[in-house]
Amino acid sequence: MSTDYPNELRYTKEHEWARIEGNRATIGITKFAVESLGDITQVDLPKEGEEIRKDAVFGSVESVKAVSDLFAPCTGKVVKVNDPLNDSPEYVNEDCYDEGWMVQVELKDPKELDALMSAAEYQAYLKEQDAG
Amino acid sequence: MRYIPHTEDDVQRMLRVVGKPTVASLFQHIPERLRATRPLDIPPLDEGSLLSHLGEIGARSRPAIGATPRDGAALAFLVAGVTPHTIPSAVDALLMRAEWYTSYTPYQPEISQGTLQAVFELQTIVSELFGLAVANASMYDGASATAEAVLMARRVTGRRRALLSGALHPQYADTVATYLAGEPDAEGRIDPDAILPVGADGRLSPQTLEARLSNDVACVVVQSPNFFGVIADLKPRAELAHARGALLVVANTEPVAYGVMKSPGALGADIAVGEGLGLAIPPTCGGPGVGLFATKSDYLRQLPGRLVGETVDKEGRRGYVLTLATREQHIRREKATSNICTNQGLIALAFTIHLCLLGRRGLTEMARLNLSKAEYAKQQLGALQGFSIPFSGPTFNEIAVRVRGGDATRPALRLAEKGIYAGVAATQPGFYTDEKWKDLLIVAVTERHSKQDIDRLARALDEVCP
Amino acid sequence: MSDRSTKSGTPIETRQLLHTSRPIFEQGAPGRTGASLPPCDVPAVDEKVALGALARDAAPGLPEVSEVEVTRHFTRLSRWNYAIDIGLYPLGSCTMKYNPKVNEKVARMPGFAGLHPAQAESTLEGALELMWRLERCLCELGGFQRVTLQPAAGAQGELAGVMMIRAYHADRGQRRTKVLIPDSAHGTNPASCTLNGFEVVSLKTGSDGLLHADVVREAIAANPNDVAAIMITNPSTLGLFEEHLGEIADVVHEAGGLVYMDGANFNALLGKVRPGEAGVDVMHINLHKTFTTPHGGGGPGSGVVGVGARLEPFLPTPTVEKAPGPGDKYRLEYHRPKSIGRMRSWFGNFGMFVRAYTYIREMGGPGLTQATEMAVLNANYVRARLAEVYSLAYDKPSMHEVVFTDKKLKKETGVQTLDVAKRLMDFGYHPPTIYFPLPAVTGGAGALMIEPTETETPETLDAFCDAMTAISVEAHQDPAIAHAAPLNTAMRRLDETHAARHPKLRWSRD
Q1: Angstroms from B326 CA to nearest CA on chain A
Q2: Contact C500 A90 (CB under 8 A)
Q3: Is A47 on the interface with B (CB under 8 A)?
Q4: Domains of chain C, with CATH numbers?
């Protein structure tokens, strides 16, 4: 299970992950999200330089018959966007923690990340959701 | 009742399975206060009486187009977005196949490949006609397609203002205005000053357009050939719009013109819309029509309406499916690109079949016939004493004529009583209210009209105008 | 047929010589045509001279085929479609009832089909009379004051209805911004509101599948003086009658709002409920559902809208009026100062008016009432026969359609709604509507929404229920069959992911 939800990442209840490196965070969606969406056909992301706000919608992912909003785990300016996803959204299905990353942001308030879940907490949360 | 198969025995047996004593008890849970207070007052008719009743109603109108060319129908030169063409018998014969007209939206592709492939072929034909990369499965009609094009241009540009050419079909302009009437301020609505005046050549002049363009304009809507029949020079208008970050939307109500006329895509249009009714089915009092819609591939995700795409099945065979459905209301609900659900399937199919029959050669030949006959009519009508051709721009098969006597509606009405529907008066009810167009009669001449028909029209107009 | 592993059920044998037809652009030969055009009897004009730089250099890339090739192509393609005239088409909420042939005959009479919409009114008398008569029939059926025939389809009817609601409040000097919509509503409802600048407040369906007045009260209290209307589908998309509609209408009216009823399912109410008399201010009716105009592979529809006195001033223009005085004289009224304007060109989908009026007059009041009764009986019969086999979404009495889910089947076998739908094709049926209403409303399970309509015989329903039962039995024995279905159709499951990831939306010479 540990590779399903890597320990070095932080997680949200909306099934995004964040990888923190210095004052930057790389953001993507979790294996659970990918599995419930099915084959992803389109990823809509903000442009470089735009600001995203914690808990606000910053983009969307589409499968053949569903669209899901992406919620930002933190506030910050977008400094990098995974442009290859435009042509190859399947990277998200194939490798959601590496090639399937979505945006990298410059953190405005690193403390915001304290509220996110650890891998263990997130897995407990998933279990709880399933039981509910 | 021939469409309801249930015998009394059937009903009793079924009620036993359902566990209800009577049919009425199936409705028992409807609260008293919501129930109808009396039975319906509509008398039923058997087939014979039904055909007599409808036949009598039908006989109270005089059609513009007969079942055969000269069977009591009027001699009609009517236009205004519905230009009746000769529809080959094969079109209706194929439409009458139950697999086309009694099927529905191809939700299950494995058993709907017929409709899906036909729509794919329609998308290809519309893309070819308009010279734009992607076309959808069709919209309700040309007017609502124009309104949807304006909404789409607003999404693409993130701006709200739309400018309409004064030579855009007035019903199309009205429809756009209705769609935008909920906007909170004048910037988002179509107020009278959003409609740009037409110049001496019958077109929106580049000077007028340049003066009115600002950096908050989402799109400029131009029709070509326009309501007065004049073909617009789209390129300079597209360049002006693009220079200010606006899109050029081009409306067309006569796709036959593309047999001789450059496509909007080739001249810089970003979105093209059209009406295909005149090539699909008889005029049918204006509906159902079929709205054509195409755009550049960059704007694919903002396209309203259904789309069919090519794919393969499990065994690798070429097939077709509805695709990119996440733009649509059934998935995106309040965030959809449009609320449109259906397309105009059957009419779109008729349009597709006719264009396949015409083909590359037939369309060009038909267009040349229309152009030649209309040029002849232009000469004949323009040469009548006191008549003139008011606009200098080039035309296709519709011509605006300034009639003698200052009022086009009266001679048109008098001729209608004599069985000649001479054309559409620009200020007849439902069109322009501007008095300056009061003496304009717009006449359509197509492959359906012989030289004698045109000569007869000229003589009749000359007789009836004061 | 060998892969049907069960003896129960009564599969329809399907054997035929089914031809494929390559895209028409891959057929024919250069220079070939199916056109029949007259010789030019006036001086020929060269477009390069007449149009100059605007003349086309090369003709559009249309096919080059003869009439025979076109006829074969579209005949062959047609055979790849399922259709009502082939068999049961139980798409819930779409009302795929039989389309009477006499409708088609009448609609093609030159006195209707041959009319040009710009003809002088004096030469359109019959058309105006037909529209006026159809409006009167629909008012009689719906309990409305007036009906606009203009909207081209249900979704455009909704748009017109919501626009009238907006105009009504504006006329009273109010700017209300919210519309209440139950979560079970069709997606067009919220989309129509957004197009009108309204914000949607989603209402939760009760645990019994119905909308309750308390939920509406709470939403109104949370948005004081800001609720423009409620949009409520009745019967709901769950096939249930909204029993609290009267009380809900009172609550909304007291708060100054209006009641929009989505009449997509009006075929369940003919002769039973007149919505206009039951507190509904505005409702669209799909002529292609309730009144048998053909669905045409996805249109044309017709989404006429009935209104009560409050919204009458705001109807789209033009309206058809009967002139006072002796004789039947009709005219078009363009001058309605409070009108929302025009929704489209001309008068609406006139060809559909002719068909719907023909149907209404053939059936008459008694026939239409009987149609509703038998539609409800048929749905309840299917419900009774399958209640033990599939999971009922809700236990309330069904109207014209019944919603099952895959809850039990999926848990027991792993076979889900999509598989059942695909396997039904192997038994010779078009599947029901699937995955609507949305899982949020069906307890997370995949919906199977079945609407048999009144035109189906009990024998057909029995065979269909046998097939549904056989699929469940088979799923318990060998779920792999359903997962792989359809097996007997001309095409197997199509790769929708590929189509969406690499959109190919027109033919091209590769």
Answers
A1: 6
A2: no
A3: no
A4: 24-78 (no CATH), 104-361 (3.40.640.10)
ipTM over 0.95: yes
What confidence tens digit (pLDDT) does each residue in B66-124 have?
A: 877 667 899 999 999 999 999 999 999 999 999 999 999 999 999 999 999 999 999 99
- Whether this prediction's pTM lies above 0.90 is answered by yes
Q: Which tens digit of pLDDT belongs to each residue from C106-125?
A: 999 999 999 999 999 999 99
Q: Does residue A3 or residue C10 have the better pLDDT? A: A3
Under 8 Å CB pairs connecting chains A and B tally to: 15
**Residue B225 within any structural domain of the chain:** yes
- Is pLDDT above 70 for C8? no
How many A×C Cβ pairs under 8 Å? 15
Among candidate residues B353, B378, B413, the one where a domain is terminated? B353
B369 and B306 in one domain? Answer: no
Neighbours of B40 (CB within 10 A): 21
Q: Residue B124 belongs to a domain with what CATH number?
A: 3.40.640.10
Measured between CA atoms, how close is A41 to chain B, in angstroms? 9
Confidence of residue A125 (pLDDT cuts 50, 70, 90): very high
Instruction: Tell me the sheet residues that pair with C331.
Output: C321
Q: Is the pLDDT of residue A132 over 60?
A: no
B20 HSE (CA, 13 A, CB side): 21
Pick left, alpha or beta for residue B296 (phi over 0 → left; psi -120 to 50 → alpha; otherwise beta). beta
Contact A89 C435 (CB under 8 A): no
Report residue C201: phi and psi, to 5°. Answer: -110, 115
B11 and A CB contact within 8 Å: no
Q: Pick the residue with more confidence: C17 or B91?
A: B91
For residue B137, the 8-state DSSP code is: S
User: Do B299 and B244 fall into the same domain?
Assistant: yes
A78 contacts A47 by C-beta, under 8 angstroms: yes
Nearest to B40 among C86, C368, C496 (CB): C368
d(CA C323, CA B89): 39
Q: Which residue of B has its CA nearest to A41?
A: B324
What pLDDT is attached to residue B332? 72
Q: How many domains does chain B have?
A: 2
Angle between helix B47-59 and helix C125-142 axes, rounded to 10 deg? 130
Please report how many Cα atoms fall inside a 13 Å half-sphere around the Cα of residue B335, on the Cβ side: 11
Q: Which residues of C touch A38 (CB under 8 A)?
A: 497
B51 burial level (CB within 10 Å; 0-12, 13-18, 19+): middle
